[in-house]
Amino acid sequence: MTIDSSRGGGIRGGVHAHARPIREADIVVIDGLRVTSPARTAVDLAMAGDHGQALSIVDSARLTVRFPNADTRPPVTVDQLEESAEVLGWRPGLPMFRRAMAESVQDSGSAGSRAPGRCCWSGTCPSRSYRRTTASAGGTTTRTSRCPG
């Protein structure tokens, strides 16, 4: 649970309270409950994970659904993500969030779709190649890529 405060977090009655400043724009009401917006939720989660998780979270927030329906939420914009992060000030996860933002692309195809190739750049890819299968309305495409590292 996030509380609108700069201090006073901790565990209370089994509930983890995270003290963070929250803008009114970062609060939405769903079924009568006040919850953080998709942008703020993405920022909070991206700051808590590793690089792969942060990139997948940011990509997912920015993803435009290919076949939307009435319940599909619009993608989160870069500006919305930046504004939600700005209010937090410096946090230990901020550099990870910034790195994920720099690598994220609008409509990446699927959240974290570039994740398999990241290990190749670091030289930790065990197979030196990776395979990606993409499904679309026109069929399925499989592509095998060689690692550059």
What does this structure look like?
The protein has 149 residues and is of the alpha+beta class. It folds into two domains: 2-113, no CATH class; 115-149, no CATH class. The protein has five helices and seven strands. The chain has helices spanning 38-48, 51-62, 78-86, 94-103, 115-122; strands spanning 2-4, 10-12, 15-20, 27-30, 33-36, 129-136, 139-146. The protein has a three-stranded mixed sheet, with no helix packed on it. Strands 4-5 form a two-stranded antiparallel sheet. A hairpin with a 2-residue loop joins β4 and β5. α1 (38-48) runs antiparallel to α2 (51-62), α1 (38-48) crosses α3 (78-86) and α2 packs across α4 (94-103). It starts with a strand and ends with a strand. The model is unreliable at 119-124 (pLDDT under 50).
Fill in the keyword field for this structure.
5 helices, three-stranded mixed beta sheet, 149 residues, alpha+beta, two-stranded antiparallel sheet, globular, 7 strands
Alpha-beta classification: alpha+beta
- Return the domain count: 2
Beta-strand portion reads 15-25%
- Could you state the order of secondary-structure elements as H and E? EEEEEHHHHHEE
Provide the residue-averaged pLDDT: 77
Amino-to-carboxy terminus distance? 42 Å
Enumerate how many helices there are, as a single number. Answer: 5
In total, the number of strands is 7
Query: Major sheet: order of its strands?
Result: 1-3-2
What is the percent of helical residues?
A: 25-40%
Largest sheet report: 3 strands, mixed
Kindly provide the radius of gyration, computed on alpha-carbon positions and rounded to a whole number of angstroms.
18 Å
User: Which segments are poorly predicted (pLDDT under 50) over 5 or more consecutive residues?
Assistant: 119-124
Q: Give the oligomeric state of the chains in this entry, treating copies of one chain as homo and distinct chains as hetero.
A: single chain
Shape: globular
